[in-house]
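Pasting as-is:
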Amino acid sequence: MSDPRVYPDRPFLAVSAAIIRDGRVLIARRAKGASAGAFTLPGGVVEAGETLHQAIIREISEETGIAIEPVALAGHREFITRDADGRVERHFVILCFAARWISGEGEPALEELSELRWLEPAEIAGLKTTEGLAEIVASAFRLMEADLS
């Protein structure tokens, strides 16, 4: 069976989480796909019948083994790739959440991720990342600070 996310007839809705723990955020290096080798936020596609919060809790658990509490929407990103002929090869609309770490130390699901790192926001600058990662992380930290006050 072919992957319906490759050469889709519509965009796919996905979620990701900037998980905050002790002043650090969890970032993940993608193991495959168009973003292979780049650091990004863990997450994945929303399944039919799931709320956004259910989807992000499930995806983070599956990809990292970490339990989280979503706090607020930190932003969104669109990920579109085209082949040499200009056809849309992949198209995701990703809703990025600020989330509170609850438990788990994190182990990457090696099928999807090759590495996990807890970093301070300033440490992201020198890494190869997906587009807009630093901005989403900054937004997540602002939202988490506002949630505490």
